[in-house]
Design brief:
Length: 165
């Protein structure tokens, strides 16, 4: 009987593949993302090899998140709760909306009258701009990982190193 995949290939994959990771999001704390506590995140994965970070992002109602740009990779999102949009755009993300953003676009996120929760997968950095298009800040996988670790340390919460893979 011919096998579609040779046994040696299966054994090679088993030798080098990463183990399964199962994360109960209810066990993870909401970490403040912004200084004014208008946004929070729950980290789900930090891939230090690619610079990709996956997290649940919660934004309070009636918020305007400053102008920002994603660099170095695309953004994939899936809206779980609430409504949000980008200033000047025709679309609104409602529950069940899938979002793909190519890198490089500068936009301003606006929430409606209810809290928003969106699953985001990001690569590269997130740059913040002032009204004159000057970069005033930046986040990337390491700054977000640091926010998580500092918050946990300050609140006596055990960090989940199994989120780094």
């Amino acid at each position: 009987m011919n096998s579609l995949i040779e046994e040696s290939v299966i054994k090679l994959a088993e030798k080098f593949q990463l183990p399964e990771r199962i994360v109960n999001i209810e066990e993870l704390p909401w970490i403040p993302f912004t200084d004014n506590h208008s946004c929070y995140f729950k980290p789900l994965r930090f891939d230090l090899n690619t610079g990709t970070w996956i997290y649940l992002f919660k934004i309070k109602s009636n918020q305007v998140l400053g102008r920002h740009r994603h660099t170095g990779g695309s953004v994939i999102g899936y809206n779980i709760q609430g409504k949000w949009r980008y200033e000047g755009r025709e679309w609104v993300a409602v529950t069940g909306t899938f979002i793909f953003e190519p890198p490089g676009d500068i936009h301003t996120l606006i929430t409606e009258d209810e809290e928003v929760v969106t699953l985001f997968i990001l690569g590269g950095s997130l740059q913040y701009f002032d009204e004159n298009d000057h970069i005033i800040g930046q986040d990337d996988i390491y700054t977000v990982l640091n926010k998580y670790r500092v918050f946990c340390e300050l609140h006596g919460i055990q960090t989940r190193d199994d989120l780094i893979y």
